[in-house]
């Protein structure tokens, strides 16, 4: 296909602008912030699950501790009641006195055992609460990091899109100076070979593999 020297020059200008647009699009697709945001999103999802699990464990332990403390209170109340009966002198039968004293001793032992259970639960609950605090802090830190990465991504997008818009404007102006049939051929070649025009060597387009004769 015949192409005037000036038209060939404008084609090369157009190809250069398209190359810039392609590079900007590639840069937009491969911003490091995109991979960072993706990894942080995965980390946040894991941490959110871990926080829920830790909070559930802490809640279960809180209820377990409350029940154990109620058991201690119930045994203590019963032991205090029996002790008052013993101290009041109302029980005079040796057999009943022995039985009451034995029950008090048994209740006191039971109370001690339950108090040990409460202490053990309290230790586990403290560890669970610490775990929740740590996970929440890590989750919040990851959320802040993701927000910062998103801000950087958005700023980069804005800069790239602005530059791409300016280049497209220049491209439209250059395309308007190229004959319609030649521009159509260029677009077809670009679609097929990515490059629609390239420098000529010996009358041959080095990028598009098409021979052009200078008018």
How does this model look, in words?
The protein has 215 residues and is mainly alpha-helical. 83% of the residues lie in helices and 4% in strands. It has helices at residues 5-29, 32-88, 94-175, 180-193; strands at 2-3, 200-201, 204-205, 213-214. Strands 1-4 form a two-stranded parallel ribbon. Strands 2-3 form a two-stranded antiparallel ribbon. The chain is rod-shaped. Mean pLDDT is 89; it is low at 210-215.
Spatial strand sequence of the major β-sheet: 1-4
**Secondary structure tally, helices:** 4
Mean pLDDT: 89
SSE arrangement, N to C: EHHHHEEE
Class by alpha and beta content: mainly alpha
Global geometry:
rod-shaped
Residue runs with pLDDT of under 50 for 5 or more positions: 210-215
Biggest sheet layout = 2 strands, parallel
The helicity comes to over 70%
Strand content: under 5%
Distance between the ends:
10 Å
Count of distinct strands: 4
Overall radius of gyration: 41 Å
């Amino acid at each position: 296909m015949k192409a005037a020297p000036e038209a060939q020059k404008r084609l090369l200008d157009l190809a250069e602008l398209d190359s810039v647009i392609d590079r900007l699009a590639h840069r937009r697709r491969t911003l490091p912030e995109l991979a960072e945001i993706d990894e942080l999103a995965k980390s946040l999802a894991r941490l959110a699950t871990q926080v829920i699990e830790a909070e559930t464990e802490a809640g279960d332990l809180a209820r377990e501790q409350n029940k154990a403390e109620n058991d201690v209170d119930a045994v203590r109340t019963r032991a205090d009641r029996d002790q008052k009966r013993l101290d009041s002198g109302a029980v005079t039968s040796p057999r009943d006195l022995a039985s009451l004293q034995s029950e008090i001793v048994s209740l006191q032992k039971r109370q001690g055992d339950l108090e040990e259970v409460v202490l053990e639960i309290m230790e586990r609950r403290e560890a669970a609460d610490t775990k929740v605090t740590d996970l929440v802090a890590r989750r919040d830190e990851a959320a802040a990091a993701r927000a910062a990465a998103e801000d950087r991504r958005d700023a980069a997008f804005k800069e790239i899109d602005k530059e791409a818009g300016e280049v497209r404007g220049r491209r439209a102006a250059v395309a308007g100076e190229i004959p319609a049939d030649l521009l159509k051929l260029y677009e077809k070649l670009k679609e097929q070979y990515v490059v629609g025009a390239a420098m000529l060597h010996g009358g041959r387009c080095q990028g598009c593999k098409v021979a052009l004769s200078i008018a």
